Amino acid sequence: MDGDAKTVVFFPEGAYGPTNNCVGIGDVLRRRGHRVVFVVEESFAGRLTAHGFEERLMRLGPPPAEPEVPGQFWKDFIRDTAPEFRRPTIEQLGSFIAPTWEALLDGARYVEPRLREIFREVGADVIVEDNVCSFAAVMTAGVPWVRIMSCNPAEMKDPSVPPTFSGYPALDPAGWPAFRAEYERTHRSLWSGFSDFMVEQGAPPLPDLEFIHESPYLNLSLYPREVDYPRAHALAPTWHRLDSCVRATDGAFELPAGFATAPGKLLYLSLGSLGSADVGLMQRLVEVLGHSRHRVIVSKGPQHELISLAPNMIGEEFLPQPAILPQVDLAITHGGNNTVTECFRFGKPMIVLPLFWDQYDNAQRVDETGFGVRLGTYTFTDAELLDAIEQLLADDDLASRLRAVRQRLEADPGTTRAADLIERLARTGEPVLTAS
Asked: How far apart are CA 216 and CA 218, in angstroms?
């Protein structure tokens, strides 16, 4: 390392999506000679050192009385909450979204002392966080900090953008006021208490009904411009769009010889590490896709041993998604932001079966912009799924549009652009503004 090397601390949410985004950016910075440190939950121990990064471990709650079983959290979560995913999104606000926020905010309160300890010990030049709620320790560390928003951009509220978590159409605002009113009713007290906590910890109060601050230095959104929303009000000049952020740290993926030469197109099924824990839903999809004339690669997830694949399929518990997507013709996904943006990066049409959070917004946006089809996750018929596959595979105009998106994103990697911006902030300490 030379004298210009900086210490960049990444603090992603304890989920694979935000962590993988940060890994892609951190890998570019590490290769440039910077010291890259990841602050991660104990359950991620060793995963980041395997990529050549330093780790600092923390917890978002007290240790359990019994040893933690890998993947058990997701199994329990799905068991307890899957019935909520069958309800309209406006009804989920009180029964699922608010309790989820409450758990996240409790974690932020619990980890505050440990975060302050880590930031003091590491000596960061810049802190990069990819979370949905604020952490006072980030803003009071005395160094510039970056917010990555690896969620659907409806998270940045605007009068012309549908309410976050609604999955409502962009061109039909009829239901927006009722959804926003219900969000306020179910979240106002949560927000007020957390904003008070921020102030007690030396951070600014939160913007009205927001659980996270914008950075005064640098904010990065992660969404292709082809599907982003038109806005009534421009975002602050510290916001920069990455379009996609695909890591280059995963291994290769080679199709088995017999499977590679079998007839039919190649499909990829992934409901993310959480969605795939719904064994009933996964088995239903496997059963329907087993009647397809195409081949299917299945990301089986934490309950992999309970999922039986059809003869036209291969699959594993975890798969190197960025290595698989370039090889397939279509993806069937839960609509997680990582998978959606990666599909655009590699030019693949999508069938989206949303489960929770911003997945409804992603599903709706993909459908209404013509880059894929949104289906009812628990209400789709066999014919609807199979017909959607054939419709998308036969759409030459869509293939041409996706090819253009792929070529544009390939020429401007989000990981490199993000690394450039973070590096600039670490060196100057000054807000990084978009060109006027």
From this structure: 6
Max CA pair span of the chain = 63
CA distance 139 to 172: 38
What does the block give as tokens for 47?
Answer: 């995963």
**Separation between Cα atoms, residue 397 and residue 389, nearest integer Å:** 15
The burial of 265, by beta-carbon neighbours within 10 Å (0-12 exposed, 13-18 middle, 19 or more buried), is given as middle
Token duo for residue 399: 């293939």
- 8 Å CB contact between 368 and 307: no
Tell whether pTM > 0.85: yes
- CB atoms closer than 10 angstroms to residue 306: 14
Dihedrals phi, psi of 39, to nearest 5 degrees: -100, 115
Q: Helix or strand or coil: residue 402?
A: helix
Question: What confidence tier does 61 reach under pLDDT thresholds 50, 70, 90?
Answer: confident
Mean pLDDT over 329-354 rounds to: 95
Q: How many CB atoms lie within 10 A of CB 157?
A: 15
Residues 427, 34, 344: CA angle, nearest 5 degrees:
90
pLDDT of residue 3 exceeding 70, the answer is no
Amino acid (1-letter code) at residue 18: P
Q: Look up residue 319 and give its amino acid.
A: L
R_g over Cα of the chain? 21
Using CB atoms within 10 Å of the CB of residue 390, give its burial: 0 to 12 exposed, 13 to 18 middle, 19+ buried. middle
Angle at 390 between CA 340 and CA 151, to 5 degrees: 10
Q: Give the per-residue pLDDT at 2.
A: 52
Would you call 295 helix, strand, or coil by DSSP? strand
Report pLDDT digits (tens) over 63-93: 877 776 655 565 666 677 778 888 999 999 9
